[in-house]
Inverse folding.
């Protein structure tokens, strides 16, 4: 009816194949925005080093800030975190502030260390960069594929150690 307020529906998260760093970056941005809008309880970011993720962008940090709340959990799994510390200047202070909802683990730099999937996992949706070199992969809500991805992430997590502390205590 004219004059009625219509709630604007948010666009659904992308599903299907993607190719290229721009497409992957846009999917990460959409995921951060959706996390804030939809109030996801848990998000898992997994990548060997997060070097080419758009985590340091102002809009991404604003979305993470809007998402962060009591009862939320962000899991970061990487082979190493030095590139995220150097390359995502806005993300590092945000990580410090929200340390109580963030868990970080690293598998280590050794060639024999566990293979870390490049992925975002949520309880209802995921993105998996199957070919990180070319930024090619798939995003989906498929429960079976989402479960398989979580099992791969959990195996790497099991072999990893705590890393990327919010602060470094010195003597």
């Amino acid at each position: 009816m004219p004059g009625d307020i219509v709630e604007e529906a948010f666009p659904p998260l992308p599903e299907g194949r993607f190719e290229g760093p721009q497409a992957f970056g846009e999917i990460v941005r959409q995921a951060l925005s959706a996390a804030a809008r939809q109030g996801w309880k848990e998000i898992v970011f997994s990548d060997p080093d997060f070097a080419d993720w758009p985590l340091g962008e102002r809009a991404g940090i604003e979305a993470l800030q809007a998402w962060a709340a009591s009862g939320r959990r962000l899991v970061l799994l990487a082979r190493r975190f030095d590139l995220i510390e150097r390359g995502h200047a806005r993300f590092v202070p945000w990580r410090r502030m929200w340390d109580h909802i963030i868990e970080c683990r690293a598998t280590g730099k050794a060639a024999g260390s566990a293979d870390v999937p490049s992925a975002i996992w949520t309880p209802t949706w995921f993105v998996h960069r199957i070919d990180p070199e070319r930024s090619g992969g798939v995003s989906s809500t498929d429960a079976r594929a989402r479960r398989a991805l979580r099992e791969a992430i959990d195996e790497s997590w099991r072999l990893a150690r705590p890393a990327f502390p919010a602060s470094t205590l010195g003597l």
